[in-house]
């Protein structure tokens, strides 16, 4: 069954002066325009294509790859705004519509926004929505602390940064879990820190547990070596000072210091940390 807004592997039914007609099953033949047809394409051959609706709402196939497909979140730029909504650049000849009713704030040409792409049940058109929360599932999941996940940064809050987990759930990265502010729309690997009683998910951009601590310990040791065995950082140093020197959060810094201190690799002085001579 052909899925609109997705990649499909379809068989060439026939060639014509307009391109190749692909067998779309119950949806009939679907045109692959000449600009996508290669000289070796023949009837009976299978080809992977993306299926969407053209400017006249006709099903059409393309070998181009959109930036996101139906069922995905992405950070897209507004190409134009009209009386029906905003049109986003998603990498295909026909821009992606965000109707006014699906905008949190009126979108502005040239700006980029985080959106979800879906197939409208009534019109069967591919559209996008900036009201991403209604497309997220924050109940059914089986994440475990330490799991590595794919994140899309969804925006800043007073506590930290919201992030979409594996294109499905929403979680929170606390400010002390970041060494520099991530940008909205940025795709980054992340880690599950904990699942709270209310099913909300806490995240980190660094591995948690021993593996993450070891990485920070090594980074601290290297920085001490580069600075003649001394760093002007203490327990009262600000998170900003620590990020500037070490590119890690204050929480990660304190754990790394504690680990090296227990190993008797450093001495804690009034104005900083000094490497312990062997």
From TrEMBL:
Record-annotated S1 motif domain positions: 3-64, 69-131, 144-206
InterPro entries (alphabetical): CvfB_fam, CvfB_S1_st, CvfB_WH, NA-bd_OB-fold, S1_domain, WH-like_DNA-bd_sf
A Pfam cross-reference name: S1_2
Domain of life: Bacteria
Gene Ontology MF, one: nucleic acid binding
Family stated for the protein in its record: Belongs to the CvfB family.
This protein's name: S1 motif domain-containing protein
Organism whose genome encodes this protein: Marinilabilia salmonicolor
């Amino acid at each position: 069954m052909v899925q609109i807004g997705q990649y499909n592997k379809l068989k060439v039914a026939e060639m014509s002066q307009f391109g190749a007609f692909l067998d779309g099953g119950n949806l009939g033949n679907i045109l692959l325009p000449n600009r996508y047809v290669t000289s070796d394409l023949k009837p009976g051959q299978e080809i992977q294509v993306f299926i969407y609706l053209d400017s006249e709402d006709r099903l059409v196939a393309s070998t181009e790859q959109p930036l996101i497909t139906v069922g995905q979140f992405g950070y897209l730029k507004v190409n134009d705004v009209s009386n029906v909504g905003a049109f986003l650049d998603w990498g295909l000849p026909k821009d992606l519509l965000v109707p006014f009713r699906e905008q949190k704030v009126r979108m502005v040409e040239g700006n980029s926004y985080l959106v979800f792409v879906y197939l409208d049940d009534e019109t069967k058109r591919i559209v996008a929505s900036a009201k991403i929360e209604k497309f997220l599932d924050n109940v059914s999941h089986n994440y475990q602390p330490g799991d590595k996940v794919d994140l899309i940064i969804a925006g800043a809050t007073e506590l930290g940064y919201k992030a979409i987990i594996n294109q499905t759930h929403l979680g929170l990265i606390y400010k002390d879990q970041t060494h520099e502010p991530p940008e909205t729309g940025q795709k980054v690997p992340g880690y599950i820190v904990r699942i709270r009683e209310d099913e909300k998910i806490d995240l980190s951009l660094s591995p948690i547990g021993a593996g993450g601590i070891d990485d920070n310990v090594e980074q601290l040791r290297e920085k001490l070596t580069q600075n003649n065995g001394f760093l002007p950082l203490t327990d009262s140093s600000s998170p900003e000072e620590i990020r500037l020197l070490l590119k890690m959060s204050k929480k990660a810094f304190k754990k790394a210091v504690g680990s090296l201190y227990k190993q008797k690799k450093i001495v804690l002085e009034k104005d900083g940390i000094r490497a312990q001579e062997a």
